[in-house]
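Two proteins were folded this term; both appear here.
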Amino acid sequence: MSLPTLSTKRRLIVTLLLVSALVFALIVRLGIIQIVQGEGLKKQALEQWTRGIPVKAERGFILDRNGKKLAISISRDTVWCRPIDIKDPEKDAKKVAEILQLNEEEVYKKITSKQSLVKIKQWIEKEESEALRKANIKGIEIAEDNKRYYPFGSFAAHIIGHNNVDQVGQYGIEAAFNKFLTGTAGKWVKTTDAAGRQLPYDNEKLYEAKNGLNVVLAMDETIQHFAEKAALEVLVKNKAKNVSIIVMEPKTGDLLAMANKPDYDPNKPTIPVNEDEAKSWEGLSQEEIQKKWYDMWRNFAVNDVYEPGSTFKIITAAAGLEENVVTPSSQFYCSGYVRQIKSGKPIKCWRYYNPHGSQTFVEGVQNSCNVVFVEVGLRLGAEKMYEYLRAFGFGELTGVPFSGESPGIIPSGPKAIKDVNLATISFGQGVAVTPIQLATAISAVANGGNLMIPRVVKELVDEEGNVIHKYEPEIKRKVISEETSKTLMKILESVVSDGTGKSAYVPGYRIAGKTGTAQKVVDGRYADGKYVASFAAIAPANDPRIVVIVIVDEPSNGGYYGGQIAAPVAGEVVKDVLNYLDVEPQFNKEEQESNEKENVTVPEVRNKNIKDASKIVLSLGLKYNTDAYFIEEGSVVLDQFPSPGTVVKRGSSIDLYIESKRQDTEKIIVPDLTGTTREQAIEVLNQLNLRFEFSGSGVVVGQMPKAGTEVDLNSLVNVRFDNVN
């Protein structure tokens, strides 16, 4: 036997090394599998051996402050399919489609898919569940599921919001508190063989779902009904574009009601509640329809801004009183026009054709005189005005938990506020606010000066009724003193008893408030014929329990004044809410004194021009108001409140509703002022509504523009005086 050669020995050594390396590699790999990857592989194996059908948690309820259920979850079955267990796809697809009223081809695609588990139909009816169980189709399984249901339909839709098909909140409280409402899902687990077939003697396991928390709102269901009823009535009666009514508790910031009309049904969030609207959607593209959905879900009170008009005068008054630039007895003079500043277009009082003349600040607020508020704004100055805009929460979010809240539009800073801007801001033009911002700001005036964060949710509660979290009322900041608050409340009460807010008066209740009529801005310009009528009410004035804001966007059935349209609605809501809250009626000193005054029968002044009508009213010892813009001297009275023949007390105010016309294009012929004195020139120019700038003294020796020149209303005339020997 010959000995192995050297080359053979080398090959044996190499082979041994290779085998040893392979064994070592296998040992290392086995160690990695058993030690490093062991837990993960066990989990994967378990997933292969088992299959589970998700069991959704029951979504928490949404309740009003008194426990009334506004959003609940109801039990509905959902149909699932295990394609691997389907024996006869064509036969089974036909049967399932027939029972569930589905397209047979679509069902076939699902039950023959490569997925391990596929949903066939969500939330089937009880009859469909029974029929499917009787059919006993292998591979088709029925699992209990939950569906969101809103028992009152469109009621409080913009507060509650709605969910998508996967029960995820999309808008309102459903979206904002989705993580609390959702809960934790469970699972129904079964054991299967390698082919995915269920084993006959396996141990099934049901992992229970943990239900979500219940959300308790600050909203009161009864008060919300009052607001919704009033909003719908004013929407239909005035053929308005939108209506929003907010009821807030000023001391806590609790949102007692927020009604927007038109609205939608959260049970069917993609279908309009109005049949005419539904017909108008026919033939639209999917993109256009989706835009309609978003418009329908849009929360007007939170997402949209508007110029507040005269309701904003409350803020100017509060700032002026707080800064001591005005007192209730301060004297003002209204000549019909603002003459302290230069402007391209005339800045007028609404009653420029019959100026208010001499008046106190209280009377100026009662009369809603623009000239008075411009003077207060100018006394405050740009720095202070901007400071109070920010202090009252304009230009920032209020803190409500609704998506898409607008911060409003205010100047970027004091330097951006020129004299003209300061003047218009003072009476509510040149700024844009949301209804919720205005409600919060006016609540600060009513509660002693505290700007509150609106409280929409009071608490989170579990299934057993245990309070998991409580949301306490929260003060954002102090904006005015309690003394200023009390002073302004007395003034605003007189607006309802003696001023432009008379139609919001409710016998026996002390109501403070302010009317507002604002021309809408469309594409950066004031649009003819488009207005927002509004009213802000606080009641009772001596111990405020509620603030009511009524906004009527684009009324188009004749009138558009805040005093005519919004004030009576606010009065009705105040009456209903205070009765519900068991607030006892009471009479203030002024009301008691008025009972002793002489009765006067309201005259018929409809169809008369404003000049004649005002003379008749004043001759009887009555006052009159109107919110109209741009009234011509010959304008005719369209309507009046109270109606002719009504018996009222001498000194009461009559609201006259006038057809408004713009006069921006009116032309004036410049008169010849040569030889007139300073006093004579002032009288002539004032009568023609022309601004003037004088130089020198004596009598007029020159003017620019020249006599006979045609100029715009409120144009500037430079007049030169000299002493003529």
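Next, the second protein.
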Amino acid sequence: MSSAPSVLNSPDYASLVEPRLGNTIGRWISFASACRPLGLVALSPDTRVNGDWGCGYNLADTHIVGFSHIHDWQSGGILLMPVTGEVTTDWQSPFSRDTELCKPGYHRVHLDRYGITAELTATVRTGAHRYTFPADLREDAAILIDLASQCGPCAMLDARLVQTNPRTLEGSVINGPTIRKPKTHPVYFVLTLNTDATLEPFDPARVQARLSLDRPAVPVTIKVGVSYTSLEAARANLAAESGDKTFDQLHAEAHADWNTHLSRIAVEGGDATRRARFYTDLYFSLLGRRTVSDAAGTYFDNTGPEPRVRQIPLTPEGRPHHRHFSSDAFWGVQWSLAPLWSLAYPELIDEFCHSLTDMYHNSGYIPRGPAGGADTFVMTSAQSTPFFACAINNGLHRPSDLEETYQALRKNHFPGGLMSKAGYEHTTCKGGGIEDYIALGYIPEDLPPVGMHTHGAAQTIEHAFNDWALAQLATALSHTADATLFTARSRNYRNLFDPSVGFCRPRERDGSWTEPFDPSQKKGWTEANAWTFTYHSAHDVPGLIECFSSREAFVARLEEAFALSEKQKFFAPRDHHNLIPLDFGNEPALATAHLFQLAGRPDRTQFWLRRVIDTIKAGNSPEDTWGGDEDQGIMGAWNVLVSIGLFSATGACESPARYQLTAPLFDRVTITLPAGRTLAITTTGLTPTATNYTESITFNGRALTSLELPHTALFAGGALHFTLASTPSGLTAA
């Protein structure tokens, strides 16, 4: 595992973050406050617990149900609630946002019903609570432990709880299956207090226990160590990460950890609100995909007929070589996390590749959305291929057996691999359409209704992008025949382009076009429409231009898509993504603005990027949003890249990878790179309240003649300077 650079004595960027942003349309996995970057524990208040969408902490609610430790992709559990009096059911309490404090690594709320101030913080694998009861308390004080209620998408099954001494409890609960995660998995925990307590009798079949306290005169501190593998590992995680540290020490460490990570990209100047929003976006890019391995490197493998506990290899110093992770889909990661992490957090992209390769060794698949120790097969195609191509071709991931890793990725591009499976297709290989894709050059619209997202046109275009990504890796590894094969397949999107209408569109098995055609129809498309997917093939803009017959026609139709989308504020409500040409609250549209630049019109890229940012991605209050579901860092990472003027429409998959340059939104951006290097991005002529156009650019004092730089140049560090103007002029070359 590569070492991460550290930033000392940095400003307090964590204080600028608003963790509640976008919360009213979020999910169980979307919000966390008392947590660490990519932490297993995401300890947060819950206002709703029974469901995925809108559950967990929701800004629209006025009552808190409790504080649970796991808010993960298809996982949840271990809910605590401090109370006074003889409360046994309906223990929720109103709270006021006027007295709430929510920052990275810390959350404080006042439970008005009980007069209790609750504070939360965390390490990677442990949660810490501090409850201050009323000074004039005349009733019994207690902690309710709810291991029975559904947390997020998972029913809680077969819970166990034992008090081993007056200040320690141990327990476990089984996370039930979901439509996305068909197998159960365990969660183990060890809970310690700083005061004696008595566990009252409870129904072992439905563990909603009451832990009685002796009217505490001092704040009650609770620490909870969590593991997916065993009670022994939960104890070890608690000892290794929390030990004898006080709540205030743990809080300070969490705050410092977030500042260290956020300080990798230091921005100065520009608009103050936009700077704060920048760090909120950066925070979310490091939040949702979670560590699931123990401090000692053990992790839960649920890919086989029986679950197993496995061990990550140890370094000569006895530390795990990398962590193991859960993750929502890699759908859209090529336009968000991959190019961002490749510059600012290269150790993370390396760790994730190792984790996904571990799962290949266990199951025979490199997954695209692991949860509960197995793949959920979320979304479509071989979406982890661009992630690996980016990591390997940029020299950020060095697998122990590079050829094995390549062959594992290649497997997903043939029958039986991930291109055979549509969303959540666990036991069959029918919905991905790979056989038709190979034989016909496209996937028709008569796929069997297995899984979800079995849309032939969308999968054709997604397969084509991922084939291109694999071709880049094949080229770098001198697999010449494969490079030729996958490059040819990457042009299959052209088989769906109908010049008579100027769109890609669905086709039937006999080759005829699906009728009737409306570019806003749902049929054929995954969470988008023909407007979006026509411009999805960012890997081959020259080919797309050929489809349109001219650069002017290509640009005109794209301009029309943006103009229509602006009327709807670039955002469509969930499950209605097709009702807008380009929905920037969802993944498929994320590269579209940069296609103007790749077609020779960088002025329109900069114009429309600014419109999108200002319309739906500019504020930093709890009521502001990304325009849609944040999807575990994808929206936040896209915002970060656009704000600093760096983007890769091709997912940084080539060797060398290409980054497009656009006008930054700040006077100065400093990215801390490994080995003490820095990339300084500065501007002259920035106008924070208006669209800025690139007039000229220099890199290390040399004038650039194009609006691109390779990853190798950026990652080596140096000085990138933009001269900006209020009207389009200067550089036009892609």
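The CA atoms of residues 84 and 141 lie 5 Å apart. Confidence is low (pLDDT under 50) at residues 1-9. These notes refer to the second protein only.
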